[in-house]
Design the sequence.
């Protein structure tokens, strides 16, 4: 029978070493709560020795009740030539009150001599002593054997001795770290098999993605007996990042028969991934295994046909298991089937024989040629179909808008203003509003103009506003695509606008958003 | 001794199945030329049976001389119940004049019965006949065994029979495809070992990344005797994408001792990856193994210290081998060392004891708190240091700017205009200019204002303009970061601006770009 595998998340520590990842104390606490709910076994909160924010994190964490996870503080072995109990950094780890303490130490002689500048024996003593002091203070201790695989390849006996030193000190787990991320899976498998024979304490695996193999290496280690997987959500981390737990978890649970979280948690995996991107202000990786927006998206006409017949033909798992969903892409390569399935996905029944359908297909193709993409703008797609099929009267006609912005460092003021002239049911509305910038002012003026005729638009909030420069090598003349997501508390919808003028692209997406909302309201009759 | 491994690139066919990947005929030809120069062995240009553009591609390709690569046309086995030589799609493959023809066929009985709706025997005949007709016409034939691993797991005898049918027909390679991308590396290894025993013809591997294991699976296959690797540049492809050749190539060449391209080509790997992103209009994956902008970027103070002492301590390969470079990140976690190394990287010697240095560190921290990032804006970083250390006089002072844009669908016109009031050496310049949009107009007006005093700014071209919405959930009020790259023909530099007003953020980045250029010119004295 397989031994259980525990999940050790280091998003809050190793993850923040990634380029562009900066988390406030509040962010870190929100993320920790979310990871706890999700069912992660260990949450490494930070390194109290490295900065004040992490000390505060552990202060706050000690006063919280955690549902499932154990909180871990990260640090290093004692310094060369001091007693572990007198080492200031070791003391900070104890002061953190974290029930688990993870310390890293050297296992590669190159580092012992070149970076630590000490003897092999002193390094072993540093490991053993530090683990012992922490265990003596009642902590569960995890020993991270830094550069384990490189160290083992250089000198297997010494690398194993380092693990044994941690074992003697009383560590609960020793973790084999592929710190530089350059090891191949078959090497990991061979080395783990040897480790399994030479030590008694449980071992775990900590990989980096420098060779694109962090997940594969962690899988190889688990197959050879690793009982803990360390990684980060979305693979955040220094350089190319750490083992991506969002990829690792479903592989463990769905493919290897090693359950690590509840089935219910697993179905929230995509949400967890998006939540982290949101808090860490990272762009969602649309191609991320299991959870990406594109990961169950079918484009080729033939694949779409086959999936239509039998999902299993082109899907390795049911997307719902990980909280994802199938998508049918509408694009250049798409046959009629794609457009039909996409429409069906949105609850619109298209008739193949209807002449409108040909017009819809042509319109989509010509807009795509201009730079439109409907893949992430369902509402604009639906609007396009309904305008053609239902010959719907627009909710409003734009006559003119004008935006203006002045910045005067000398007179110390900045202002942005927009005016909008709109016809609603033949009646003109001419409004003006300010804002933080020209687009915000335009948004405000348009809402003001429409508020009399359509008071319900006050419910619309813009929840996301994205700008993509399409041909960015054309500098400030480049074509711009704006994607807007709106919500009214009950539902969300996304619209798109394209222009070589950012304000106009924003206007188009804003106008579609409101038009879609009003049309949708009319249909549902509220 | 290891047998040679050939590289088969399907960026132009399978790659274009990826969401958002659309390539024109011109794009496809440019990419093919680049792949040929790089040293790829096979270039799959498209599927002549699926669209007119691909037919034209092969027409153009037939008239070109290729340095190294063989061009492959992709298609399927003949239809059920027709003679291969009378199948219209097979005829299109021959008409393409491509020296290599790759056909895919079924190996999974589920697909034979549910999608093809035919018998197992007819499917075998379809494979054998089609390969035979194509070989008879003098083509080198590659047989892609679709869903091979799923088919094998379902019925190993039948899956092998399909490979034998292709072998009997005369195929040069049979390719084991993990079409749904859900297979684990140890399964791939086991199945490949069995295949190696049962067939005589060379076999290759074609993987997808649905489990995040496409590269690991290809490596496992090569270790078990696969002699061809199929994949795409940057891993483009349907759903989560194909095996990323940009990751696979250095793994093969640097780690597995299986050279596939020249050392000189390998050192152009990062350029190849960026070129493809540029042509396919994809965002560069900064964390891409080997070639990402962040892939040799060091942030943690301690790692930076160690790398400073000995690069090998935290780098699995020398970044130059793949055309990449080490970067030192300046950010919240960065100690003084990072700022020093970053400055040194840019040729600025900072003195640790200098009081200016403390001011520089504080200023960087406070700007980062506002949303600035200097990681991709070297020129703004250098400017910040020089402003503090050299007390340089700004090249110009902004007094005021005003932008305005009107769009009138009724009167059918759009206009954007900007005015700028600038002081240069005490003298005021007040200019106005138009543009495609407000930012472009502002750019034009500023250049006009500065042209008298600094005619050399006419040499500056904007080569990239990127907009990132930082807190995009705040809708059109969100804070915006603008990154601009400029060039003068000889060099490139990047600057950054942040504001909750996109026009102002753009202004800040534009102003830094020109200021940096003028200062740099003054120093180099030309």
Sequence:
């Amino acid at each position: 029978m397989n031994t259980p595998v525990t999940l050790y998340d280091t998003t809050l520590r190793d993850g923040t070493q990634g380029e562009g990842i900066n988390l406030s104390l509040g962010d870190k606490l929100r993320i920790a709560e979310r990871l706890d709910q999700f069912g992660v076994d260990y949450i490494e909160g930070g390194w109290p020795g490295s900065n004040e924010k992490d000390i505060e994190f552990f202060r706050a964490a000690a006063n919280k009740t955690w549902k499932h996870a154990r909180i871990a503080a990260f640090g290093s072995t004692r310094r060369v030539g001091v007693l572990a109990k007198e080492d200031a950094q070791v003391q900070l780890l104890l002061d953190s009150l974290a029930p688990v303490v993870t310390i890293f130490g050297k296992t590669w002689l190159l580092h012992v001599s070149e970076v630590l500048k000490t003897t092999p024996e002193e390094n072993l003593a540093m490991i053993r002593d530090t683990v012992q002091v922490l265990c003596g203070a009642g902590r569960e201790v995890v020993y991270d054997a830094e550069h384990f695989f490189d160290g083992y390849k250089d000198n297997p006996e010494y690398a194993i001795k380092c693990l044994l030193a941690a074992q003697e000190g009383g560590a609960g787990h020793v973790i084999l770290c592929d710190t530089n991320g350059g090891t191949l899976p078959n090497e990991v498998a061979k080395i783990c098999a040897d480790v399994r024979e030479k030590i008694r304490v449980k071992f775990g695996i900590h990989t980096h993605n420098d060779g694109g193999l962090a997940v594969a290496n962690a899988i190889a280690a688990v197959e050879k007996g690793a009982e803990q997987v360390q990684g980060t959500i979305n693979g955040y981390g220094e350089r190319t990042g750490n083992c991506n737990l969002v990829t690792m978890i479903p592989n463990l649970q769905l493919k290897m028969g090693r359950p690590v979280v509840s089935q219910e948690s697993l179905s929230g995996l995509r949400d967890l991934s998006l939540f982290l991107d949101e808090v860490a202000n990272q762009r969602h990786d649309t191609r991320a295994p299991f959870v990406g927006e594109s990961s169950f998206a079918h484009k080729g006409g033939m694949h779409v046909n086959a999936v239509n017949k039998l999902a299993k033909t082109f899907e390795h798992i049911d997307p719902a298991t990980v909280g994802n969903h199938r998508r049918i892409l509408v694009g250049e390569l798409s046959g009629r089937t794609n457009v039909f399935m996409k429409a069906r996905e949105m609850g619109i029944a298209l008739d193949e024989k209807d002449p409108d359908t040909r017009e819809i297909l042509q319109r989509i193709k010509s807009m795509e040629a201009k730079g439109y993409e409907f893949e992430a703008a369902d509402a604009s797609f639906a609007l396009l179909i309904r305008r053609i099929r239902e010959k719907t009267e627009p909710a409003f006609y734009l006559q003119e808008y004008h935006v203006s912005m002045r910045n005067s460092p000398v007179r110390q003021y900045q202002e942005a203003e927009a005016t909008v002239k709109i016809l609603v049911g033949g009646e003109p509305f001419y409004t003006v509003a300010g804002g933080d910038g020209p687009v915000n002012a335009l948004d405000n003026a348009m809402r003001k103009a429409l508020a009399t005729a359509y008071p319900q638009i006050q419910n619309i909030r813009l929840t996301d506003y994205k700008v993509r420069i399409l041909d960015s090598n054309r500098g400030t003349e480049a074509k711009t695509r704006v994607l807007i997501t709106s919500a009214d508390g009950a539902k969300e919808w996304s619209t798109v606008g394209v222009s070589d003028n950012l304000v106009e692209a924003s206007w188009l997406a804003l106008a579609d958003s409101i038009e879609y909302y009003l049309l949708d309201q009319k249909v549902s009759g509220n």
Notes: Chain B touches chain A through 131 residues (CB under 8 Å).
